Fold this protein.
Amino acid sequence: MKILIPIIITILGCNSYKSYIAPDSKKNHLISNKRIALIGFMNYEFQMTKDRQGDLYKSSASLNYNQSMKQLFPAGKDVSFFNSKEINGQIGRDNCLDLVYEYINIVKDSGKKELSNFIEFDLTPDTSKSKCQVKTNNVDYYILGIPGKPFNSWVEYDASFFGYIQSAASVLSFFIIPSKKAEPVNAYFYVYDSKLNLIDKFEYKKQVVITTSWWFNLNINEKEFVFKDIDQSIIKSQENITKEFSYDFNAKYK
């Protein structure tokens, strides 16, 4: 066992990561004639820190403002396109606060930069004293796109009895038999009307498939969807989820 553990740790570097792929039936663009303001739709970037052994690990995450996915929802435009110098009197304080807290409860303070571009807000521990005013006009729908949590634990790709047998066989064969795990990749899209009333929510729970083997991966020739870096695979998965949501939304709200 003392010999086996270092071998396993070394072999774990031979991973490949297969992104989520949207169904072919949802790859066609449907375009709405509505005025749609997009908020969020960004991936995370990570700050790397060294541990006591000098190995790098992800210590924190924030939104990557240089990696927007709004262009993958062609029926909408960035919310800044609808900015106004005047306060939108149709949107009440409570609806405004609901959107702000929905966003920053997941993406934390890194989301405040985008929100401040079209919302004047001052959050206090006593929410009854918080201020929130939206400065937009001519919007039919607001869509808040939020990636899932930035840090997720790997899970079994196949949690059935057969899956556990296969995982054990993989370890015992020194990964001649490939082993598969999965990392959850989730996304949430909140749809609001012109008065920021929440009217719909689209939730996607997908995964990146992690294949471990000493001879690498059977699917590595699928270069468009299989990567040697998990962060690239997660980004590609989020992009494909956004494309799928674009189809789903426009099919429902024609």
